[in-house]
Design a protein that fits this description.
With 137 residues, the chain is mostly beta strands. 11% of the residues lie in helices and 28% in strands. It has one helix at residues 119-133; strands at residues 20-25, 44-49, 63-70, 80-83, 95-98, 103-106, 111-116.
């Protein structure tokens, strides 16, 4: 009977917070439209933690949901949140949080955090997520 090597399992005991910004290998992020239009590849890409749940700090939960950031603001959709550089988010260009391209990633693949959304940006992100559910408040 084969023994599982514990150190090979993707456990991560960090506590991830809603609105934190991390780096990840760009090759791990999928943009569905890339099969039809040329995508600019980078070594790393910024992503934003988009859920606030207990799994974010549970080392037994290997994956976390993120939305990739993109500086191609000319392609903004109604599912994107436009954010601007500030002292909290540490981005260097106007960017889109691409909620329409949200995806699960392994926590161990995230480097950082490298920044956080400001309180105003968190409120805008939450409002957009509520609006996208179709629920009228």
């Amino acid at each position: 009977m084969a023994r599982r090597a514990v150190n090979r399992l993707p456990f991560d005991d960090r506590a991830f917070q809603y609105g934190e910004i991390y780096k990840i290998k760009d090759s791990l992020i999928v943009f569905p439209e890339a099969q039809y239009v040329k995508r600019t590849s980078h070594d790393t890409r910024l992503v934003c933690i988009i859920h606030h749940c207990k799994a974010n700090s549970d080392p037994r939960a290997w994956v976390i949901n993120v939305a990739p950031l993109s500086t191609k603001i000319e392609y903004k959709r109604d599912t994107d949140l436009e954010i601007y550089p500030n002292n909290e988010n540490h981005i260097d260009k106007v960017s889109l949080i691409r909620l329409g391209c949200a995806q699960p990633v392994l926590k161990i693949d995230l480097e950082g955090p490298v920044g956080n959304l400001s309180r105003e940006e968190l409120l805008q992100l939450t409002g957009l997520q509520i609006m996208l559910t179709g629920v009228e408040l």
